[in-house]
Amino acid sequence: MGSDASDPSYKLHLACAALVGASVAAASGYYLHCRSLASQLGSAAAALPPPHHQNPGDAPPPRAAAGSSSLPDLSSLYSVGAAAAAAGGSRGYSVAEEEDDDDGEGGCIGELAADAADCLPVPLGLPRLHVGPDGNKQLVRSSSNRRVGIIKPNSPKSPVASASAFESVEGSEEDDAAQQNGKLDNGYVKINGNIEGEQKGNKVLENGTAVPLAAASLIRSHSISNDLHGVQPDPVAADILRKEPEQESFIKLLTAPHEIPSPDEIEVYKLLQKCLELRDCYLFREEVAPWEKEVINDPCTPKPDPNPFTYIPEPKSEHVFQMVDGVVHVYADKDYTDRLYPVADATTFFTDLHYMLRVISAGNTRTVCHNRLNLLEHKFKFHLMLNADREFLAQKTAPHRDFYNVRKVDTHVHHSACMNQKHLLRFIKSKLRKEPDEVVIFRDGTYMTLKEVFESLDLTGYDLNVDLLDVHADKSTFHRFDKFNLKYNPCGQSRLREIFLKQDNLIQGRFLAELTKQVFSDLTASKYQMAEYRISIYGRKQSEWDNLASWIVNNELSSENVVWLVQIPRLYNVYKEMGIVTSFQTLLDNIFLPLFEVTIDPASHPQLHVFLKQVVGLDLVDDESKPERRPTKHMPTPEQWTNVFNPAFSYYAYYCYANLYTLNKLRESKGMTTIKFRPHAGEAGDIDHLAATFLLCHNISHGINLRKSPVLQYLYYLGQIGLAMSPLSNNSLFLDYHRNPFPMFFQRGLNVSLSTDDPLQIHLTKEPLVEEYSIAASVLPLSLLSPCSSYANTNAHWIGKNYYKRGPTGNDIHKTNVPHIRIQFRDLIWRDEMRLVYQNNVILPDEVDQ
């Protein structure tokens, strides 16, 4: 045996046996492989539609593009395989033929596939696609019922799921597994934890139910970016921008689909209903909505009015009026005894105000409103977690429009501080250099030139700088409203304020008019910024209205970017101590009687009549932190108010509201413009300021004290009352910037906007509103800010012709740069809250409040 093993012939026989066995195994394996391949190709050929027979000479039908325009068409590879399968099936594919065509049929298929791949190269960095024979992307749905994390939508820059702005970078293991699983498409989370695929098209995904979403389609750019400096564009982002217009969709997560309120909550909702009904009873609304009066014939950029101060005579009406207990009564003629436009009397108002104060102080009401506000805030955060990337994508696909070229409206800025400190410094130096001998002031029994004024202050133009000007607010003004007002005095000198920042002075406000025109020029140059400037009427004498109107008209202070508001400082106690007024009634007479006179007979005050066409609102201003006595139900009439104490805020607010309500009714009956009541409120002081403005006002400035009252905050949300907030101004006066409630109000859905208040004291740049927004976006936890505000006096060209409609139908993303997704979410949540408060017994309007 040992000798046989060492025999060379034995080794040769053993090697031959091994070779024969390996050959038989290889042949068997190849045979099985060919049979399996033939079976698969035959099945694929059977699944294809019958071939299209065309006449000889006809052009071949065009092949539909598979996939997107930026991705290669892979359907040719499958068509090659299908053709080969059909050919193989027709020949029977015997074993002998397979062996004979070992280098023929299989090689042909490989060559065709290689040629197709060479013709359609795949760009580098492109994510791997799951495609089928038709070239379409396959959706792989998970049937697992285990609890999983939220599947993040893909961002434009990355093919993998991305984290939203409010999520932590460190996720759970389940989140990591979900991100690594390339087969999971964009999805949403149902209540039971199942993952469902994303519904395409105009749908809102609502716990597994597709709900129609009425939103205008996006117009995406079809331009292809060039290869600049050898940098290749991101293929995924390019694909997004080349997509055909489609409807936006967003993911909605309902945590409580069917809310059944408890008996205690039902009682609270009835109280809230009563408060909202009281507001509807007081608020002035025009008989014909402003958008119904507008006639837009030219869709292009509106042309400025070449003669905004042209006086067109209008006939005098037969109306007569008289002041009764602080409120003007209007009659049709001198023989008519019935009042035309009745308004709630003071006793009724103060009774309703005390009812409001009882509601907002009740414990059960505070608890329910606090819970609803927290739920609103969390709903918004969930919305961002699910849809932040979709909103960002919608903004990117809006052509041309971005933050810089969207219209921004500064709805709260005081005219005397509308310029920045560097602008004022340059203007003062310019006047001191060019007009040193101009007589500008009368002081101490003598007239003084501008040069003499600065010599009396021991100053020269070279000495002046921003620090010496000292008009910028600092920490010394915190909780010191008196020191803040002193910042209006350049170099701490009231005479410089009178010369440069007053319109009623020896030079008839010429310097202030020139400075105002320069600010107008800056707004016009920026093109995308508008402002509502507040200018003062003090109520010391009735001629103030004519003086102000003549200053506006004579200096031609008009701009397409600017409208005016009139602010009334609450300084009755100062005027009383100075002997200027004898009672509060005198103050009301000086403020409102000229307005009724010019409305009835425009020829009596022609310049005032022209000026009022540009006035859109009335404001109340002063330090709200001053202590005051809460008004009772039975307050003395204005004629009886002869003491030196300043009336409470709500006392001022009611008599301004009542007279303005009557004035607006009269002006509307004559086809004239109306004036909205938009006071400062809630910056400091008592909470009843905000209760009074809830009943009487269209919108307010500041409102930061709403953080102290969850009931009022919820009511302001339900009423969608506008809040023009100024965090930088509050930071200098009453509230640290990081404690400002603006981001909380924004997340909860209150109708908030940012404004500048006093650029002279607060801001440093030439564009204070952009500065306000940029600081808020950098410091506060905000994901999306829209500086475009939809006010009734805003030109429809800037924000879309349907700006007055609620929901996405009133939004034009190409003008506002606000995604339909955000508007739709806000509208759905607000409607749900209103139906909950009214227990589904309410008809919600499709238009915003006037």
UniProtKB/TrEMBL annotation:
Positions of the catalytic residues: H702
Top-rank taxon: Eukaryota
Pfam families documented for this protein: AMP_deaminase
The record's free-text note on cofactor binding: Binds 1 zinc ion per subunit.
Pathway(s) served: Purine metabolism; IMP biosynthesis via salvage pathway; IMP from AMP: step 1/1
Tagged with keyword Metal-binding: yes
Keyword Zinc: yes
Cofactor list: Zn(2+)
Binding residues annotated for substrate, in chain numbering: H414, K483, F484, N485, L486, K487, Y488, E683, D758, P759, L760, Q761
Residues binding Zn(2+), per UniProt: H412, H414, H680, D757
Protein name as catalogued: AMP deaminase
UniProt organism field: Leersia perrieri
